[in-house]
Amino acid sequence: MHIPDNAPVIIGTGQKTWHSTDVSRTPLDALCAAATAAIDDAGHSGITSAIDTVAMIRFIADTTPGTGALFPRNPGRQLSHRLGITDAKIFQGTIGGNTPQYLINHFAGKLARGEHDVVLLAGAELLATLFSALRSGGDISAWSGETEAQPTTVGQEREGHNAIELAHGLYEPINTYPLFENSLRHHLGTSQEHHTAHIAEICSRMSLVAAGNPHAWKQQFQSAEEISTVVQKNRYIGYPYTRAMNPILEVDMAAAVIMTTARKARQMGIDPSAWVYLRGGTDVNDIWYVSERPNLHSSPAIKAAWESVSARAGIALDEISNFDIYSCFPSAVEVACNEIGLSPLDNRGVTVTGGLPFFGGPGNNYSLHAIAQMITSLRDTGGGHGLVTANGMYLTKHSLGIYSTEPPTEAWQDIDSHALQQRIDESPRLSVASDPAGTATIETYTVSFGREGPKRGIVIGRNQAGQRIVANTGTDVDTLNQLMAQDPIGHSGNVRVEDGISVFEL
C-alpha cells in the first residue's frame, strides 16, 4: 500500500508522573525525563540528531505575577542542550488547554510542507511541588535555570475574559463552567437531581479509566454516588460541581511526543507498526467572550471543527474506537459530545487517560498526555481510530485531531481553519448592557463556595432590551441557598449597580 510521503506520523511518546513532591526536581528535569522516554519509544538511536525543532507547552504559572520568574524563559533551548540536540528551532505555545493539539496541528502542516523534519513537543507541570514549596518556603530557586530570551510563540496570546466578566468572578474556570452546566440542564429540561446523577455517572466512568492507568494521579474508582454526595472532603466548589467533578491541578507530570512524516520515518528505519498517523486536525474558536454568546450550552466551533476533521480524514463517528474529550468539567464533556453527536455515556468511553478530575489536570499540558495515551491505546489494541478534543479558556479555543493506525490514501492538506473561523466570527452575538440597572431575566447561574460554605452567587441574564447582563447576588447565606434550591432560570429580578458591580436581587 502506498503511503503519502508527507503524511504526519507520531513515532514516539513519553509520560512521567511523580506522586512525591521534590523541590530538587526542576521543570527542566521533568521535561528531560518525558522527552527521553519519547526518544526511547521511537526505537531509533539516531532520532536525537534528527530532531530539528523543539516546541514547548508553556507552563501555566509562567505568566502569573510572582511565579513567572521561577520558570526558565527558554526551556526548549535548555532541553535541547540537555538532550544533545543541536541547531534546533525553538518554539512555545500560548496559554490554554487546547495548546498541545493546536501545536500538533500546526506542525503537521509544517512537516508536510517540508519546513521541518522531526519535531519534539514537550510539556511539564510541577504544580504539586510548586504549591507545596510556596506554602512551606521550599527552595525552588534552581528552577529558572539560565537566563535566555523567550522563543518564538506559536499562536496568539489573548485574555480570555472582558472587564465585566473579570469584575464579577468569571476569570476563574471554577465559576464559569458551572454556568454552562446549569444552562445545559435547563436546555435539556431535566431536574437538578436527575442531572446531578447524570454528570456524576460521567465522572465515575472516567475514574474507572484512571484507576487502571499507571500514569494517573488518582488511581481510584469512585462511584457516581460518592462523586455526587456532598461531604466535607467533597464539598461544592461551584454549584452544581462537587470537588470530585473539578480538575486536579496540584500534580507533577510531564509528557512528550515526537512527530515527523512517513517519508522521514521510512528513511530513519522507524518500525512502521509503531507509526500512528494524524489523519486530520483543525482549530476553531467560539465567540471569544462568554457574555457575548447567544447561549451558554452549545459550541458552534466544536461542531464546525468536528465536521471538517471527520470529512478530511474520511472517518465517521461510528468508526472511531477511542476518544479523549477534554474534561476539565462535566459541561466541557457534555457540550463537546453534543456537538459531535456522541453520548457522554457511550460504551467506548470519553477518555483514554481518566480525565482531568482523576488522571490529573496539569495546566496547559493535559492534552499532550491525552495524545500520548491515545497513541499507546491505538497501538496496544491492534489498531483503530481515535479522536482528541482540546479546549482552552472557557469553552473558547478548540483544537481537534483524529489519529489512526491506518495510513491515509491521499497527501496531507491543511484544513482551512480561517474559513471555519470566519463563519463563527460573523455569527450573531449579544451586546453587553452598558447600563445593566433595571429588570433582567436569569439565563444561568452558579454559587461559588469556600471552605466554610457558599460565598457568592453569579448570574448571567438578559435585560428587557435583550442585552446581556452579568451580575453577582447578595452574599448572605439565605440568598445563596435560595439560588441553589429554587432553580431560578427564567425568573426575573432587579439589577442595581454598586461601585461598578452589578447586583441581582431575586
Distance between the terminal alpha carbons, to the nearest Å?
A: 67 Å
Helix vs. strand class? alpha/beta
Sheet of most strands: 10 strands, mixed
Percent of residues in beta strands?
15-25%
Overall pLDDT score: 96
Number of helices, counting only DSSP H or I runs of 4 residues or more: 15
Strand arrangement across the biggest beta sheet: 5-3-2-4-8-1-9-12-11-10
The Rg value, from CA coordinates, equals 23 Å
Q: Compute the number of strand runs.
A: 17
Poorly predicted regions: none
Which of globular, elongated, flat, extended, rod-shaped describes the shape? globular
Which percent bin holds the helix content? 25-40%
Summarize the structure.
The chain has 506 residues and is an alpha/beta fold. It contains 15 helices and 17 strands. The chain has helices at 27-42, 47-50, 75-83, 99-112, 127-136, 163-167, 173-188, 192-211, 224-228, 262-268, 300-313, 330-340, 366-380, 417-425, 477-485; strands spanning 8-17, 53-56, 89-92, 119-126, 152-153, 236-238, 241-242, 252-261, 276-285, 322-324, 385-392, 397-404, 438-450, 453-463, 468-473, 492-498, 501-505.
